[in-house]
Amino acid sequence: MDAVLQPFLSFFKSKPGKFIIAGGLLIVSSEIVYELYLWARKPRPRQKSCEVFFINRRKLAQPLPSPQEFTYEHINRIISYINRAEKSICLAMYIFTMREISEAVIRAKKERSVVVRVVTCESMVGNEGSHLRDLIAEDIKVQYKYKSEYLMHHKFCLIDTDWYCANCLIEYHTEQYGEPKKNMQHTMFDKAVMSDRAGLLQRFGSSCARCNPSNRPKQAVPRRKKSNDPLPKHGVLIAGSSNWTFPGLTTHWDTVTISSLPELIDPFAAEFQRMWYELNDPLKEHATREPLYKTRRGMEGAHS
């Protein structure tokens, strides 16, 4: 056998043989590099910055989802975003009766130390199906305006978005709506901008990550394993016409929009803080134990 292989070994040891080997290796390595180049240039699906979902429509998926997955598609989508929250959840919700979402919010606070703030409507305080009482039991701060003439009818949630300091909040509202004037019909916030900026500074501080990036919190030790599907850098907005109820997220003619666009997030973030300032009567746990407002004028008919 050695005698048979010897001529081949001798050839490859010669100068022409070495050139052939080197040329072959060059061709193979060039092909590998080219394939890697094509792979790197291949377009990959990008995370959408804005998606709209219609509640009584479902996406057709393969394999077909189970009846439970089919029914809970929109509910599970909201829970998946809450489960990825690392910094904050700011929730403005008129009716909130979804136990599964309530449990996800509580987990975020208890397991990941997420700051949770909730604004709701006084007319829903006594709603026996509301899961506000579960949040309050976990020391989550829930606020509303006592005996307000108007409904807090918003349905939106901000996850891991920045929190304005008083200076940035005033600057943003002034840019968007102009400097408050004495001859205007003012809200409490407008009056504070005019005459109680010290109060706003006391409530919201004078510096934040928006005006001073060094204030952005840094985690030395991750609270949990890095998600394979992290939230966008500046968080997300979940907003629409749906209350967080079972029919509101499964069958009604309703919409949910999920966006990471700053042009959408910023107005909602500033508005939430305006409500946080104005609708500032803290909800007490005992207030949710009985339907206090069933007989209130105009509230007998349920708002959906």
From TrEMBL:
GO cellular component, one term: mitochondrion
Keywords assigned: Hydrolase, Lipid degradation, Lipid metabolism
UniProt cross-references to InterPro entries, sorted A to Z: PLD-like_dom (IPR025202), PLD_domain (IPR051406)
SUPFAM superfamilies linked to this entry: Phospholipase D/nuclease
Keyword Lipid metabolism (UniProt): yes
Domain (Phospholipase D-like): residue spans on this chain: 78-276
GO molecular function, one term: RNA endonuclease activity producing 5'-phosphomonoesters, hydrolytic mechanism
Gene Ontology BP term (one): lipid catabolic process
Pfam families in the record: PLDc_2 (PF13091)
Keyword Lipid metabolism attributed: yes
Family: Belongs to the phospholipase D family. MitoPLD/Zucchini subfamily.
UniProt name for this protein: Mitochondrial cardiolipin hydrolase
Species this chain originates from: Anopheles arabiensis
